[in-house]
Design brief:
It is a single chain. The chain is mostly helical. Helices cover 75% and strands 0% of the residues. The chain contains 4 helices and no strands. The two termini are 36 Å apart. 6% of the residues are buried.
C-alpha cells in the first residue's frame, strides 16, 4: 500500500522548486544560444559551400539547401522555443508553489495547522474545518 506524503514533506518539496526553476531558466538560455548559434553557423557554412559550386555541380546545391532547411527546422525551432521559455520564464508555474508555501507558513504561525496525530496520514483533522475556525 502506498503511503501518502505528509503535509510537511509536500511543503518542503515545494520550497525547493523555485530555486530549481531559476537554474533551469538559465540552462534554457544556454541551450537557446547553442541551438541558434549552430543554426547560424550551418547557414553561413552552407551558403559559402553553395557559392563555391561550379555550374555543373548545381545538383549538390539542392542537397545543401535541403540540409539547411533541416537544420533550420530542427535547431532553429528548438532554439526559438528555449529562448521563448527563457523570456517568459516559469513564473506562472512557480506561483502555485509560492502560494502553497505562503499559506502553509501563515497557518503554522497562527497555530491552525492540523496535526497528523489528530487526523489521517494526510494531515486532515477529524471533524475540524479550518474555514470555520477563523
Amino acid at each position: 500500500m502506498l503511503r501518502a506524503k505528509s503535509d510537511e514533506a509536500v511543503v518542503e518539496g515545494a520550497r525547493r522548486v523555485p530555486a530549481a526553476k531559476r537554474r533551469v531558466r538559465w540552462v534554457l538560455l544556454l541551450y537557446a544560444v547553442l541551438f541558434l548559434g549552430l543554426c547560424g553557423y550551418f547557414t553561413l557554412a552552407g551558403i559559402r559551400k553553395i557559392d563555391t559550386l561550379d555550374a555543373d555541380k548545381l545538383n549538390m546545391g539542392f542537397v545543401y539547401g535541403f540540409t539547411l532547411a533541416i537544420v533550420w527546422v530542427s535547431f532553429g525551432i528548438i532554439g526559438a522555443l528555449c529562448l521563448g521559455k527563457f523570456l517568459v520564464g516559469v513564473s506562472a508555474e512557480a506561483r502555485i508553489q509560492e502560494l502553497l508555501i505562503l499559506y502553509h507558513d501563515r497557518l503554522r504561525d497562527l497555530g491552525k495547522l492540523p496535526s497528523e496525530k489528530d487526523g489521517d496520514p494526510n494531515g486532515k483533522a477529524k471533524g475540524r474545518n479550518l474555514a470555520l475556525d477563523s
